Amino acid sequence: SKSSISRLKMVFDYLDAGADDEISLRRGKDAYSELEMHYHVLSGIKPPLDLSTKIFGEDVKLPFFGCPTAGNRMFHWEGETAAAKAAEHHGSLYGLSSLATTGIEEIGKIHNGPKVFQLYVWKDRELVKEVIAKAREGGFNALALTVDFTWYGNRERDIRNEFTIPPKYTPKQVIEAIKKPAWTYDFLSHDAYTYACINTDVPADSLAAFVNSQIRPEFDWKDAEWLLGEWNGPAAVKGVVRPDDAVKAVETGFSTMWISNHGARQLETSPATIDVLPSIREAVGPDVEIILDGGVQRGTDIAKALALGADSVGVGKPYLYGLAAGGTEGVIKALEILKVELDRAMGLLGTGTVDDLKKRGPGLIKRRPGSARDYPDRYAYERGYGGGVI
Predict the structure, then answer these.
(1) 0.85 exceeded by pTM
(2) What does the pLDDT read at residue 361?
(3) Side-chain half-sphere CA neighbours of 252 within 13 A
(4) Dihedral angle at the C-alpha atoms of 111, 305, 56, 48, nearest 10 degrees?
C-alpha cells in the first residue's frame, strides 16, 4: 500500500497485521483465490449496472461498506469523518466503532444515510445504555454487537513495535517519527485522540489496557437479550463463524448475522469467513440478513461473497489504506475502485443486479483445490504484479 510510505511503521503494522503468526490473515485472503467464477455469456446487459440493495432494511447504492474500525485519527487527522464523507458520497452504509476517535453527533451531521453503530461487550450497563441512546439520537438506525472480542488478540507486530496510542517518546519511536515526517506533522499539529463515543475525558493512551479494563468476558446470550431489549431495533451479532451460533442468535432476537473473525486479529487459525458463509446461510435460511467481512480486497471478492449467500459485504483494510494515503479523497477513491471492480465482475458474470447475483450465485461460483500458482511469489511485486505477496 502506498499509505505505508507516509505512515509510521507502528501505525501501518497496526492496520495491516493479524494475530500471532498471521495464518488466518493469509488464509482469509487466499480462500477467495480457490473460488472460480463460472460466468454466463450473451446475457444482454450493459453498464452501468444496478448495485443498489438494502442493508438493515434501508436503501443503499452499494452492497458493500466500510466496517466500523477503531481509532481512525491514528491513520489521518480527518479520521472517521473522512470515511463518513466517503460513504455519503457513494450512498453507502456507514459503520462507526464505539472506540472511534470522532463523536456520534459529529458523524450524524456528516452522513445522512443509514448508519450502524458497533458496540463491544462492556461491563458497565449504564455506559451501554448511555452510548446506545446517543447512537439513536445521532441517527444510527442499526446496532452491531461485537462478540469475538472478549479477550484482546495477540498482535505480535504491535508488541514488537511497542504500539501505544498515542506513541510513547522512546528512542525507537522518535527515530521512526523522524523517518515519517508527514505522519509526525499530522500527529503533532492536531488534538490528542480520545475515545469520543464513550468518554472524551479518557485519553486513548493504550487501546489494549482500556479494552481489558472495560470488556466483560463473561457476557452471554442473556446479556445479549437484555441489550436487544434496550436497543429495540435492527441489530447484528458481529463475529459469528458457526451455524449453531447463528441459529442461536436468530432465536435470541438478532435480525442480522454478521460473519466475521475480526479481520483475523483475534483467534489465530479461526476460519476464513468466506468458507463458513454457505453453511451459515443454509442454517438460518434464505430470509435472515447476512453481512460478511474478512479477507476482502477486490470487487471480485465482493461478488463471490454475494453469490455464496451474503446480503452485503464489509471492508476494513481497503478503505483504511485509502484513509492513510489521502484522507477523504483516499477513502472515496478506495471505495470507487471496489465499485468499478464489482460492476465489471457482475457484468462479466452475466448478472445485472445484486438480486440476480444472489439468486444465481451458487451456480456461478465453484471451488477448486489450491495451487501455488494461485498466489504471487515474493518477487512478484518487483516484476510489476499488483496483487498480494507471500
Answers:
(1) yes
(2) 95
(3) 24
(4) 60
Q: In whole angstroms, give the CA distance from residue 242 to residue 312.
A: 18
Is there a catalytic annotation at residue 262? Answer: yes
Which DSSP category does 238 fall into? E
Contact 148, 262 (CB under 8 A): yes
Determine the Cα–Cα distance for residues 56 and 256; give it in Å rounded to an integer. Answer: 8
Measured in Å, how far apart are the chain's first and last C-alpha atoms?
A: 15
- The single residue of 76, 90, 111, 262 carrying the catalytic annotation is 262
**Helix, strand, or coil (residue 235):** strand
**213 to each of 7, 99, 122, 207, how far by Cα in Å?**
29, 14, 9, 10
Cβ atoms of 93 and 55 within 8 Å: the answer is yes
Phi, psi torsion values for 258, nearest 5 degrees = -110, 100
Beta strands in 45-194 (DSSP E): 53-55, 58-60, 64-66, 94-97, 115-119, 142-146
Helix (H) or strand (E) holding 377: none
Report residues of the chain scoring pLDDT below 50: 1-5, 385-390
C-alpha cell at 25: 490473515
In 3D space, the residue among 206, 166, 171, 183 whose CA is nearest the CA of residue 8 turns out to be 183
pLDDT the model gives residue 208: 59
